[in-house]
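Worked example 3. Consider a protein that binds magnesium ion.
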Amino acid sequence: MNVKPDFSKNANQAATAPAFLSIWDMHAYYGESYIVQGVSFNVHEGEILALLGRNGAGKTSTLRAIARLADPEVKRGEIWLDHQPLHTMSSYQASQAGLGLVPEDRRIIAGLTVEENLKLAQIAPPVGWSLDRVYELFPRLRERRTQEGVTLSGGEQQMLAIARALCRDIKVLLLDEPYEGLAPVIVDEIEKTLRIIKDQGITTILVEQNAVRALQLADRAVILDTGGIVFDGTAAEVLENKELREEYLAI
Ligand SMILES: Nc1ncnc2c1ncn2[C@@H]1O[C@H](COP(=O)(O)OP(=O)(O)O)[C@@H](O)[C@H]1O
Ligand SMILES: [Mg+2]
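Given these inputs, the predicted complex is written out as structure tokens:
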């Protein structure tokens, strides 16, 4: 009989610090399609958590559910951010509560310059970083501030999308495949900014297909497979565990 090892048993060993963001028994559906099937994990304040798994494992759906977007619909479970019950909130309220989602397609607004894209994020409270602070982190955006956002390179658009999230007063940054389609030197640059953002006290969930790069940056990792958690532990444990990498990450 082929019994798969249960790597999720590590769950409570790595989690010594108290949870800052806590997802508990979350079940979410696209219409009748049951996709997020009882997901629980904790994120500690100030850490970078890599959320990994093969294509179709449910990573984007999990991020969308945490961000309280309409799809997929969370029908059961709880999501707590710094003592606030996100599961009772709309996506707008979750954003107000400090959640910043950078979706895979980046959503740069056409017809607006780089600076207008950033200013739009600051239109309603709670406002986060000033433009000066954002430009200090991303000097390239300052250089291109009068350029239309959608005409930027892929890497610059990713920087703009992250910068825009920081223009809101966020506690947690949710990044969906920020390295996708980018050259390794640009990934280096984005990675450097993610370290600085971490140093400023922001907590990050990083979803990436580029698992090795994500694990090199992350403190801990959670691996999803068919809508459930199959591993919860340190990033180093994943990098050291060949069986786990081959089974769920194909690396
Ligand atoms: N809008 C949708 N309607 C129905 N099913 C969806 C929708 N979006 C994603 N799915 C399904 O949910 C599963 C998980 O998808 P997703 O969360 O995008 O995975 P990942 O981000 O890990 O690649 C897949 O089987 C996918 O086909
Ligand atoms: Mg995805």
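Take a moment to read the result before moving on. The domain at 7-11+18-233 is CATH 3.40.50.300 (Rossmann fold). Residues 30, 33, 35, 53, 55-61, 71 surround adenosine-5'-diphosphate (ligand 1) (CB under 6 Å).
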